[in-house]
Amino acid sequence: MARTIRNAKIDSRSARSKLPVGKTIHWVALTHGHAMGYRKGPKGGTWVAKYVGSDKRLQATLGLADDLMDADGERVLTHKQAQDKAMAWFEAVSAPPAPPTTGLAKALDQYEADLKTRGGDLGNIARLRRHVPRLLLDKDVSALTSGELRDWRDNLSRRLAAATVNRTCNAFKAALNLAADRDEVILSRNAWEKGLASLPDAEEARNVVVGEADIRKIVDAAYGQSAEFGLLVEVAAVTGARYGQIAGLTVGDLQDDRAEPRLMMPSSKKGKGVRKVLRRPLPITVALAGKLRKAAGDRPASTALLTKPSGDAWRKSDHFRPFNRAVAAAFADKAGDQKGVAADREDTAATQVETEAGMRITIYALRHSSIVRQILHGVPVRVVAVLHDTSVAMIEKNYSKYLADHTDALARAALFDVTATKRRTGRPRGTK
Fold it and tell me: What global pTM score does this model have?
C-alpha cells in the first residue's frame, strides 16, 4: 500500500479547524499529475482529487472530511482514507478507455432484471421506458449532468401531475443508483440527486372519495357493460383492494363455505426489497360471495377468479377504458356539463368526469372511499391499514383530514357540558 503523503495544514482535524472558510482548495501533490485537496465550507470540509494528464484534466469530489462527523470510509473520510480513494480514482481515470459498461440503456435493463428478481413492480421500468428519450439512453450514466436530467424532469411536469413526475423520477434514481452500485468508476451521484429532485407540493393527498350512492351508480353502470366487468368493480368497491390485487385472485381464494365469507386477497408488489406475495383474509358480503361462486363454477382452484367476457384473466390496464365508460354513464349529466357528451368515443368518460376539485374519478376512488368509510365507522386505523395492504403511516399521511373528522366526533361525544346537570335537576350535582 502506498505511503500516506502528509500535509501539516490538512492531515488532522485540529489543523483543518484553523483554516478559514472559503473557496480555496488546499492541494497536496501525491504523484506526478495527481493531487488531492481540501476545501473548507461553513458546515465542514470536502476532499477533492485532481488528475492532469497529457490529454485531459479531471477533478472529482471524494467525500466529506471527518471535521464534524466520524469517518465511515464511504461518505465521510479521514485524510488517509481520502488519499486511498484518490489513488483508486487516479488509476481508474488514467487507465485505457474500456468498452462502455454503464450506458443508460443497459442500466435500465439491469434495473428491470433486479425488479424481476425481487418481485418488484415492473410498472416502474415500463414508466421509464415510456418517458426516457433516446438522447439520454445513448449516454453513459457517468456522463449524465444534473442540468439535462432537470430539463427532462421539468419537461415531464408539463405533461404529467407532480406526484406522477416524482414517482417516475424515483424509479429513475433507483435505476441510476443500482448502476452506480455495480460500477466503481461512478464516484458521484450528484447529477441525479440534484437533477431529479422531487417537485414540491406533490405529496398533498389528492384522493378522490365517492359517496355510497355514487358508488352504487358506478357499479350498476359497470354491470351494464358486462356481468364480468360489473363483478370486478363490485369486488373493488367492497374490498378496497388495488386493481392488481383483484386481478390476481384465484378461485381458491374464495372462502364461501362459512357463515362469514371472505377472500384471501394477495398482497401488492409495492415497496422495497424482495416482495413475497402474501394472502390476507378480507370480509365480503354474502351476496357478493354468491356471485363469485357462480362465476367461478367448477374451474380449478389455481385459475383466475375474475375473468373478462372472453374468459381471459384481467391484465394490467384492461379495466381503464371500461371503467371510464362506467363513470361516464353513472355521471352522464356531469360529463355533459363539463365537456359535452361524446358517447361514440371509447376514450371519453372519466377523463371528462371530474370532482369539484378538478380530480378525475378512477377505479382507485373505490379504494380511497373504502378506507375513508372504515375510518368514519370507527374501525381502528391499524386494522384499516392491514385490510388495505398499506401502513398506518400512509393512512395518517393521506387520510388525515378524515381522521381529524373522526377524532372530532369521538372527542365531542365525551365533552364535559357544565350546563347538562343544571338542565336535568335545576342545580349542579353535589349541591343542596
Answer: 0.56
